[in-house]
Design a protein that fits this description.
The chain has 338 residues and is α/β, with parallel strands linked by helices. The chain is 31% helix and 24% strand. Helix 8 links the parallel strand 7 (177-181) and strand 8 (209-214). The longest helix is centred in the middle third of the chain and has 18 residues, at 189-206.
Length: 338
Amino acid sequence: MSDIVLDVKNLRVEFDTYGGIVKAVRGVSFSVPRGQTLAIVGESGCGKSVTVQAIMGLIPMPPGRITSGSAKLNGQEMLGLSPKEANQFRGVEIGMIFQDPMTSLNPTMTIGDQIAETLIVHRGYTKKASAKIAVDLLDKTKIPEAAKRARQYPFEFSGGMLQRSMIAMSLACNPTVLIADEPTTALDVTIQAEILELMLELKRTEGMSIILITHDLAVVARVADDVAVMYAGQIIESGSVDQIFYESAHPYTMGLKEAMPTNKPNEERKLMPISGSPPDLFHPPAGCGYFARCPHAMDICESNQPSGFRIAADHYASCWLHHELAPEVDALHLVGDQ
């Protein structure tokens, strides 16, 4: 059996709007090994959520469309399936925790019934059997008094409990891959830590692979094995979590790190935000998407798309600064050889 559970290649997604065609995802490729966590990180609007929604078949068509690419789950192509065919995998082999649990859950159904519905639809369980499993899942996600809570409605839950309920629902059919889209958004730091620890524990006990969508580098450092940095609909750097944090090879990744606060007294420094704005994806730039904001931009960056330069084993960066003829940039601590 292959060690790669999910393999995505050259995924491109567009949206028709009144203003024109938005090229939201532009040639994204990545793979997720069995039992590992891949974090996809980047600013809001860079295409993180659209990427995973396209894989799940959740892009409304129209106005959206997948113009090219492949996404294989255990060797099975996920793109281009009909809703009926996709439902054989969604919620079964691949589960998803959505960004806002309050709007993702049905306010007219109890939490237990919503979890049980997944088991009834996908596994054919009876109502009684699925209700018992729903309570067990709530208990597994550390919701106190699970049997009582299963009979309550979403408005009776706190934000952290709603997120735990979403995790319980996504785990109902024992998925191979769990996609977590900003699972700690709007949660206070204490609850955030509990949710992250819960995900790590479930990965260890259930053997799942996880795709974590986030813009929070602190979350990435805590839970990820591998990291893909997205910008303007493209993955511009990828590698292990240590390579991304300690051997950053793209100016954008360095910019994200410089804008990240630290709680270490001996490392106090002024936060340096990334100046400028992301490019207009109605008319994506011909060259590097980061050209207009990059402090080390060169003439070639404006008109020529950089290839994925190999920095080290499984560490790649799309930046012309890694070309053998590029000038050295010591201030960035850029590493690697060509």
